[in-house]
Amino acid sequence: MVYNLTLHTVITGFLMLVLLGLLQSSAFATALPTHARHMNEQLGAGQPMAPALASPAGERVTSYGFLPYWISDPMTLDYDSLTHVAYFRVGLNGSGTPTETSGWNAIADDLVDAAHAVGTKVHLTVAVFDESTQNSVLGNATNRANAVSALASLVNDAGADGVNVDFEGTPYGQKDNLVAFVTALKAEVDEVYVDTPAVDWSGAYDYSALSAASDGLFVMAYDYHWGGGDPGPVGPLYGGYLWGDYAMDWTLEDYRYWGATDDKIVLGVPMYGREWPAASDAVPGTATGDATSITVENAISRAADYPYRFDDTSQTAWAFTEVGQLWYDNYATLETKLTWGVDQGIQGVGYWALGYDGNDPAFWEMVDRVTLLPSPDDTDEPDTGDVDTGDVDTGDMDTGTGNGGMPDSPPTRDSEDDASADDAEKPGGCGCATTTPPRVGWLALPLLGLLASRRRR
Q1: What is the model's pTM?
Q2: For strand 324-328 and strand 272-277, is the pairing parallel, antiparallel, or unpaired?
Q3: What's the average model confidence in pLDDT over 265-285?
Q4: Where are the domains of the chain?
Q5: Following DSSP, what letter does each residue of 369-421 receive, concatenated?
Q6: Quick one: pLDDT at residue 408?
Q7: Which of helix, strand or coil describes residue 150?
Q8: CATH for the stretch 28-436
Q9: How many other CB atoms sit within 10 Å of the CB of residue 289?
Q10: What are the φ and ψ backbone dihedral angles of 8, each rounded to 5 degrees?
């Protein structure tokens, strides 16, 4: 009896390790980091921008937006609806010397002037996505110090306010060194924010220590379904039912479980969707090829030509097109997810990426509704006025989804891909944020969920 129990335990443990290996390879190993995919995709390039808006005065929760280098006319963006704008990006070489700095050097003065004029802080994003460079920079004290000094000079010389650290797919062996890097950087600049994944498969991000060392963690709560997987919501609010556990609500609780404090958490939402080639509108569906990323502006316009569909579990819009399944967020679903984040009592919310809405005034009016807090004079009427109109499904909120709302009977869960001259698509998302499980069969999914539900720390 003892022998049989021991043998059973050994066999079970072996099978769990095999499944875990599948989980951390195949589907995930081939996925590019979240923001790296968007660099490859170039979503929404060349879209004309409308004049910037002036938002109502008032205290605002953190409203954090990334400004990719490929956005045209960046000086027309609505910086007044943001607390922070993070220019994306510069890189690092193995010795810690910044690379690709020409874009920052060209825009920094004008960006700082425009943002500071409306009280918005400016960060410089340092993005490193390959493992070898991270090992070289983080794993060597001299290289790490070189990077800190050089980045601080780029920021401080421009009169900017801080650094956004976008190290994706960080090796587990650099876990403590990443914290040391953030700590050293924080000593040299006013603010440091760290981009962190929706699901940290390898346990490489010490949420507790990074939370304490930084001013905020920008949680990349997107790419739950990525371009190389099957169709589903890019940024699901809730998990369960058809999609498994992984969604924004699971991600936030995971951060809390591993020690990140609410006052340091910024929930980032996707300003893009994906269109997967698929033969049918079955949900969950099966992709017949890789998806194409599409900005929220273009997704809303494209979906207007097809019947509007809505997934109640994930709070995500979708359409069945001549290509396949288009999953995207419109202004109504984005407002639902952003409002949920603010209501959780976290530091704030953020957007990947600025310009993907075409700088539509309706989008920024929605952002103001969500992120501007009521003044003390409004405390006796918390649910009225500009703070919460209740019209989350109106035509103003949803420009082009057919009926402009969420149906009572909804139909029944990634960022890299192709770019075309017509859609001019930009970067999509990150492998470390990807949460779609590898295809190992339905019977294995419960065990996979158990294995991955609480990662190694």
Answers
A1: 0.78
A2: antiparallel
A3: 98
A4: 28-436
A5: HHHBPPPGGGTT-TTSTTS--S-TTSTTTSTTSSSSS--SS-----------T
A6: 29
A7: helix
A8: 3.20.20.80
A9: 12
A10: -60, -40
